[in-house]
Structures are given as structure tokens and as C-alpha cells.
């Protein structure tokens, strides 16, 4: 992945997670504390280093709140820090970064820095206000320990997800992190009735098994209303989806195949999620692929022209998928 693509992808995922955290307390301006929370649930090496030092999402939330309260108290202000509720980012709007956070992203991508999560974390812990250093000390670690962890990780080659699952096929892979044990994540994914909680394209499930097995099938209805209440335009023939479990290894991976029975030439969509225990939760490897319908006309020139847009679309689908699974546990 190029430096630009890496920085853009990192900025997107961190911004989404940080603004989701801000939305829990009714804030619209996202600051360095929210950025640390986002890094604590990031799937990249930066998140792994933080969680390995005990800097988990719940711990960061508590430490940031305590630090804000202490700062207000030092000014003679006895005010309660807003308690966090559920994430309402997708139901609301008007979010933006504060200036110090924007400058962190700019520095993380300047010069020969890659702009990935590790670069952002290095800039964050060096931010001049001392806020993040104080939060880390509350969590039993220091900026120096975080830098040492990043330096150690940098000595080893990192495994970057492949762009495609199979050459010549519309497919892609990605990674995500869920702040919950593998057992809880598996319970979510293996319950067909809970699919609307994490799969952004599914609005409801009809007669889905609570514990799925390979070969199980059920009917799902396409989502027609966004989280903010706005209606989505969906063609009538795309309202019904059939879901089939095509592969399953309990506690390790699940794979589903989605088809549109009312569209004769529709391609089938496959989603695969692999789970691996990790510090502070579960590392997820996500794969998405489209199975081409043999009766669908081939348009190779058009496919070539649309390849960049297709790759971006698949990346966005994977990003929403990983974010949806992680959000259930936040």
C-alpha cells in the first residue's frame, strides 16, 4: 500500500473511531483524548503495542475522564465530566477535529513518515500539552515505554493484508479489532438474528438460527433506513437476500454467501471473518469477494476502467464491516 493510501486509510479509521467515542458524551469536537481511545482499538501495530501495555479502551476512557476532572479541579472548577453513553455518531452529525489533533495527523504524514497508526501514535504521545503523557502515567506506563514498544515492533517485518483474495476476482481483505474476548465475538457472529447489529446492509433477519451450522440458510431483508432515520433508496428486487453459511470452524472463522433470489443475473457476495485472540480482545481478519454469475454479460473494458473505484468500494465495505463488529462491544 502506498504512503498516501496508508495515511488516508488510517485517517479514516481513526477519525471514525474517535468521533464515535466523542459522540458517547455528546461532544462534537474530537480531541487528543478521543484519538488515544481510537488508537486503543486500532488493528494496526500501534493498537497492539498500546494494548500490550494495558492501554485498553475502557482504561483510556476512565483515565481521560479522571485527567479532565483533575484539570478542571486545578482551576477551581468543580464540574462533572459527562458520562459516556452509547455511540450515536451515525445518528447525528457536525463532528470535527480540534486543531491540535489535525496537526498531529499532518506531522504523522510529513516528510518520510508514513502516516500510519504508529506514526500518529508517536506524534500523539509527544503532543505539547502533556495531556496524553499524564493519561499514560495514570495507566501505569509512560510515553517512553510506548516508543520503545513501537521501536521493537518496527524491527520485525509486518504482515500487510493482500489487496485481493484471488487474482482476477473482485475481492479484498482487511483487518479490524474488537475489544472483547473471542468467545463473545463468536457468539455475536454465530447468531443469525444478530446479523443486523454488525452487517451494515442487513436490516432484519427472518427465522435465522441462534447458533448457526455450515449449510444453514435463512432470509434477510436489506436495510432501508439509515441510523440517522433517513430513508435509503433500495430497488424492490434487492429487498430480499438469502444468506448461507458456507464454512464454519467454531471459534475460529465463519463464512457467509449472500444472494439476491429476485435478480436472475445478480452476483453473489461472500464474507469471511477469522478470529484470533489478542491482548485486550480479538483480532479480526476480514475477506470480501464477489462470485460472478455465469449468466451475467462480461464487459472487460468497463471492468478495467472501474477497477480503482471497485477497489475503493470493497475497502469501504470491509471498513464498515470491521467497524460494525467492533462497535457492538464499545
From TrEMBL:
One Pfam family here: Clp_N
Domain of life of the native organism: Bacteria
Source species: Promicromonospora alba
Clp R domain boundaries: 17-82
Name the UniProt record assigns to this protein: SRPBCC family protein
SUPFAM superfamilies reported for this sequence: Bet v1-like, Double Clp-N motif
InterPro entries (alphabetical): Clp_N_dom_sf, Clp_R_N, Polyketide_cyclase/dehydratase, START-like_dom_sf
Gene3D superfamilies per record: 3.30.530.20, Clp, N-terminal domain (1.10.1780.10)
